[in-house]
Amino acid sequence: MTAAELLPEIEQFLSSLMLKQGEMIKLCEQKTAFLREGKMSELTELSQREAVFVREMQLLLTTRQRLIDMASDLGNQAESLEKIVSTIEDNRARNLLQRMKKSKELSAIIRRETWVHWIIAQKSCQHYGELIDIIAHCGNQAPSYAEGLLDDRSGSPLLDTTA
Predict the structure, then answer these.
(1) Residue 68: exposed, middle, or buried by beta-carbon count in 10 A (0-12, 13-18, 19+)?
(2) The overall pTM is greater than 0.90
(3) What 3-state class would DSSP assign to 147?
(4) Which residues, 6 or more positions from 99, have their beta carbon under 8 angstroms from its beta carbon?
(5) Which residues neighbour 68 within 8 Å (Cβ) at sequence distance 6 or greater?
(6) So where are the chain's domains?
(7) Which of 26-30, 66-70, 144-148 is the least confident region?
(8) What stretches of 3-76 show up as alpha helix (H) in DSSP?
(9) CA distances in angstroms from 122 to 57, 60, 125, listed in the order given
(10) What is the Cα–Cα distance from 33 to 94, expressed in whole angstroms?
């Protein structure tokens, strides 16, 4: 068996990966909409779907590693499927490299969207923490604030309770 004979399996893997990436992008779009609209029950249901997605992606990662190991057994010591395919000189390999490029672009979109979701989650936690602080101190500044700073306001910089 040669690296070129792995092309059908690599193509199948890439098709599965890109299908999952498309599903994840749709999931991210739904999550963004639910976050904007504050639909908590939908977000809870979505988190369950995300957990299933993570398990499916882990299976794909196992498949990817198996393909790299198979190529290694054939003498191709590449660290990625892209490097393995780039060593093959035929049209199928060139087309596969183009699809891999598209897959990288989809990964960048997913990474950007999940980063936005992480930022929203962090800001929400900060906001809720400040609300709890205001409730705990009956709307007054926490004693840990420096004396003389923000004397005419109560609450925190994010949530001013004097308004």
Answers:
(1) buried
(2) no
(3) coil
(4) 14, 18
(5) 78, 79, 80, 81, 84
(6) 3-113
(7) 144-148
(8) 7-37, 40-73
(9) 25, 29, 5
(10) 38
